[in-house]
Design brief:
single chain, alpha/beta, Rossmann fold, six-stranded mixed sheet, four-stranded antiparallel sheet, 14 strands, 33% helix
Length: 288
């Protein structure tokens, strides 16, 4: 299977924070959701993918190419949809098309007007007068109009109302039908990903915890609930994190079979949501 993006052992250090030894592959034709708390390293990783930041070590490749020798070719094939307006505020969509269009070899005017109509976008209103949702759709229309093969979205649904969010997610699902596009979708609203993601990559405190199919995440992680009397040093070994309360404990595990053989019927096992996994692992990376 083709990898559209490959980050191999990528590290970027800042004062007081670093993204460490990231190995991340994005498979062609799929939606990968990128989750993690604010400040976990999502934006830093995306900036390295887009060559806005250079890694201190490791290798970044897109479409099998590196930025050193193929920057223009790579950027032709990427569309970026950002949380908020990335265009000059006073410009309208017609102005932006006039400026952006000639920069792309594969710019398609017909496609641009198709998406303007489909998304119900005003051509002559200044970007700053548009709602956040409309700005998002404008960014997406421009990304799609130059036949971008990889669409990178940084927190695209943050601040959108629920109806608009659902509309955007339905639209992304439609875009994936032909199998030629790949979407990398960074978010902390994990419920969005249950609807559209094929793979989930989870970053925590600058470390990539996993990159698995959404099906495998559902199979591998579970919430375990039981009485406090069941906990001791031996029985806790199968848990990634334990939350204790007077009424009993709740714990996250990635070793369901072992938990079943240790506790038998004395516990309740439930599927862990992406939010559960983020919550329990956020402050706890000793198992990585």
């Amino acid at each position: 299977m083709d990898n559209v993006v490959e980050l191999n052992n990528v590290t970027k250090n800042f004062k007081g924070f670093s993204v460490k030894n990231i190995d991340l592959q994005l498979k062609k034709g799929f939606v990968t959701g990128f989750i993690g708390a604010n400040g976990a390293g999502k934006s830093t990783t995306i900036k390295m993918m887009m060559n806005l930041l250079r890694p201190d070590s490791g290798e970044v490749k897109l479409f099998g190419l590196d930025y050193k020798t193929h920057e223009k070719e790579i950027k032709e094939r990427i569309g970026f949809v950002y949380d908020g307006n990335v265009f000059f505020e006073g410009l309208n969509l017609k102005d932006i098309k006039r400026i952006v269009g000639p920069a792309y070899k594969h710019w398609d005017d017909g496609l641009f007007y198709h998406y303007v109509e489909q998304f119900d976008l005003p051509l002559n209103k200044a970007m700053k007068t548009l709602s956040k949702g409309m700005q998002m759709k404008a960014s997406l229309a421009i990304a799609l109009s130059h036949h971008a093969e990889l669409i990178i979205m940084d927190e695209p649904t943050a601040g959108l109302d629920p109806i608009f969010r659902r509309e955007l997610l339905d639209l992304l699902q439609e875009l994936m039908i032909d199998g030629n596009r790949t979407i990398f979708f960074s978010t902390h609203i994990t419920t969005d990903l249950n609807r559209i993601a094929d793979y989930i990559a989870f970053i925590n405190r600058g470390k990539l915890i996993f990159n698995q199919s959404i099906h495998d995440v559902a199979e591998n992680y579970a919430l375990v609930k039981g009485g406090m009397d069941l906990l001791d040093r031996d029985t806790e070994k199968d848990f990634l994190h334990v939350h204790r309360a007077p009424t009993g404990f709740e714990a996250l595990t990635d070793n369901i079979q072992s938990v079943k053989s240790t506790f038998g019927d004395s516990i309740v096992i439930e599927q862990a949501s992406l939010e559960d996994i983020m919550y329990y692992l956020k402050g706890d990376i000793h198992h990585v």
